[in-house]
Every structure is written in structure tokens, then in C-alpha cells.
Design a protein that fits this description.
With 372 residues, this protein is of the alpha/beta class. It contains nine helices and 15 strands. The relative contact order is 0.09.
């Protein structure tokens, strides 16, 4: 989401009367690649770009091709194959060993449904998961859609623009499959002879939302790292106790008495870090009353276990319920000592937990790193 926001900002600030624009989107990946499907870069015909589709090896070539695409006003798919031992192939020698399809779409700035405008409406919506269908290939006679177009999917009726019952039926099934597995992917449908549709079905969740319940000095390095990640930051503390620098970078500051006003969803992590036993103890039942999938408690295990035991004895929490949501001590075991290192450990665990990973060394992983 951070990259998308940067692209939107650059798009809004561009001098559209003098600069041509195109959007590059990774729509298919086979094998390994530095970036996955959904990676984007905004390209201007003056040589400026924002975002990225690789680790830096493909961007220069994509810029040249995008400039041609802008002049022709025609979307095009570029395939980068890093599996071939061809010294003239862009990306060879990087060790990625994958095939990457990149869709280059010239942007009509007068079209309020161009891909960046669609992304802008997604970002402006309040913490929703969006389903976007990008048309990557059309075969046969299509009157109402064109390659490069993005359809914002809310239900089956969103696909009526395709004006083909069989395509709509099959594409709706494909969307349901991607939703069920929880990640984006390409799709090609050939229903009738000579009629086909290729697309990229993208699951676009909101950014992670971090709720920090505390005001001590270690909130500051954690807050800075959260914002560097492009996540949402809410601080829960009395205003007079918060460092002004933290207030300046937080998206929201909420008084403890107003904790229930915070919007909490499946992408929210709540961290108890008041450094005050009584405060953390009182905050734990509040956090457990939400649907937040991750609740972290700063401090040693013995302290957390004491809080849990006392709350259980007082009948304020269930002795076994919600244990899988609580992370105490919080963070991954990286040998963190300083506030900055602890922030890194904490952020890494939150990302791992919300991604369904265990945070182990990648060299110990026996399956592919990314879902395919």
C-alpha cells in the first residue's frame, strides 16, 4: 500500500499537460522474482519513475518500453525471462530464475476510471479489502472493455460490462477461488472459439494498522519504523504525556477513555507497552474485546503470565480463550537489546503473524517463499 500511495502522490503532482504517463504492473510471475504480482511503477516519458517492478534490473528497460507505449497510446505486455541463459536477455545473471509479465498501460488523465484513479478510490475507502480485475489480453470481438482497463469487483454484477454470460460466470468463479486462497493471481478464460480474456485478479487489503497503548520513550522508534513500513499508526495515551514528535507522525491519537472508538479489523495489531503493570493489566481485557488478530505485550514472560493469572482469577478474561492471539513476550528472537532493535523484532513478528508465517530463517524453509 505504501508504494501505491507514492504512485498516487506522484500522479497527482505530475504536470499532466506536458508529461505523458504510464503504469507498469506485474501481472504474472512464474518461478522466482524479486517482486510479486501487483508490484507497480508509475512511469513518466521524461524519464522519471516511482515504485518498482523488480530489484532495479528491469526498471530501465521498462522505462524505454513505456515511453513507446505512451506514444502509441496502446497497452502492451512485456515478458522478462530470467531462466534463459541468453546474455542479451534483460535480467539474466541476477539468479532470479523466473518469468515475469509486466503490463504497460498508458494513462489517459481525462479518464476518471484509468488504473491510477481506480487505485486512488481504493486508498480513499475506509479500510476495505478491494478486488481489482485488470484486463491483460483480449481475443475476439470485445466492444465494452479494452486491454489495460481495471474493473473494481464488488459482486458478480461488476462483470456485466463484459456482456458475455459465460465469461462472467467463469470469471466470477475464478475471483471466488482467488478470494478463498487469499492472494492475487493471473487468469485466462477461453470460452468460445476465437473469444478469450486474460486478466490479473488482485486482492488488495488495507495497510496494517498498529495500535500502541503507551507513551514511554520506546514508542518513538517503534512509531518511526511503523510509518517507514507505510502502516497506519494509532497511539493510545494521555495527550500531556506523549512526546510531540510522536504526535506529529501518528495518524491518530486516542485518549485511553476513548479506546472503544478505534476501528479494529483483521489487519490490526494492538501492542500493550505502558511499562506500568496496572495499566497493561487493565488494557488487556480491552484489547481482547476487539477482533484484533494480534495482541502483543511488552515485558518478560513472568510479568505477562502474572497479569493473565490475576485477570483469570478475577473473572475478567477466560483462562484458555484467545491465547493464540496473545504474543508475550512480544517480538521475534533476534537478540534485540536497544529500543530500535526491539522495534524491529516487534514489527517483524507482527508481519509474520498477519501473513500466517512463523518467522523462521528462510534457509530452513522447505517450500517456496511466496505463494504461486
Amino acid at each position: 500500500m505504501k508504494e501505491i500511495k507514492a504512485i498516487i502522490k506522484a500522479y497527482d503532482e505530475a504536470d499532466k499537460k506536458s508529461v505523458g504517463l504510464a503504469l507498469a504492473t506485474v501481472v504474472r510471475v512464474e518461478g522466482s522474482s524479486y517482486r510479486r504480482t501487483g508490484a507497480r511503477m508509475l512511469i513518466m516519458d521524461n524519464g522519471v519513475w516511482v515504485g518498482g517492478i523488480s530489484g532495479g534490473c528491469l526498471e530501465g528497460d521498462a522505462l524505454k518500453r513505456a515511453q513507446l507505449t505512451i506514444r502509441k497510446s496502446t497497452p502492451t505486455i512485456i515478458t522478462y525471462d530470467t531462466t534463459e541463459d541468453d546474455p542479451y536477455q534483460i535480467g539474466v545473471g541476477l539468479g532470479c530464475n523466473g518469468v515475469i509479465d509486466v503490463l504497460l498501460t498508458p494513462l489517459n488523465v481525462n479518464d476518471k476510471n484509468n488504473p491510477v484513479e481506480v487505485l486512488k478510490r481504493c486508498v480513499e475507502a475506509h479500510r476495505e479489502t478491494h478486488i481489482l480485475i485488470t484486463i491483460t489480453k483480449l481475443s475476439g470481438d470485445w466492444k465494452n472493455v479494452r486491454e489495460g482497463e481495471v474493473i473494481k469487483y464488488t459482486n458478480a454484477s461488476s462483470l456485466d460490462v463484459l456482456s458475455n454470460h459465460l465469461i462472467v460466470q467463469e470469471l466470477n468463479k475464478a475471483v471466488s477461488e482467488q478470494i478463498s486462497i487469499g492472494h492475487s493471481g493471473p487468469c485466462y478464460l477461453g470460452i468460445e472459439e476465437g473469444l478469450g480474456l486474460g486478466c490479473f485478479i488482485e486482492i488488495l487489503p488495507p495497510e496494517i494498522s498498529m495500535v500502541l497503548m503507551g507513551h514511554q520513550y520506546d514508542v518513538y522508534p517503534l512509531s518511526r519504523l511503523i510509518k517507514e513500513m507505510g502502516w497506519r499508526l494509532t497511539i493510545v495515551a494521555e495527550l500531556q504525556k506523549i512526546n510531540p514528535h510522536i504526535i506529529s507522525i501518528a495518524d491518530d491519537v486516542v485518549l485511553p477513555a476513548n479506546f472503544q472508538s478505534i476501528f479494529v479489523d483483521d489487519y490490526t495489531a494492538i501492542i500493550l507497552m505502558a511499562h506500568d503493570y496496572k495499566t497493561d493489566k487493565n488494557n488487556l481485557p480491552k484489547a481482547l474485546a476487539t477482533i484484533a488478530p494480534y495482541i502483543g505485550m511488552l515485558g518478560p514472560r513472568i510479568r505477562s503470565e502474572k497479569i493473565w493469572r490475576e485477570l483469570t482469577e478475577e473473572g475478567r478474561i477466560s483462562p484458555t480463550e484467545n491465547m493464540d492471539r496473545i504474543h508475550a513476550p512480544v517480538g521475534l528472537d533476534i537478540g534485540a537489546v536497544t529500543p530500535e532493535e526491539i522495534a524491529l523484532s516487534l514489527i517483524a513478528e507482527v508481519k509474520a503473524a498477519l501473513s500466517g508465517r512463523d518467522g523462521r530463517f528462510l534457509r530452513l524453509r522447505t517450500t517456496v517463499i511466496h505463494n504461486r
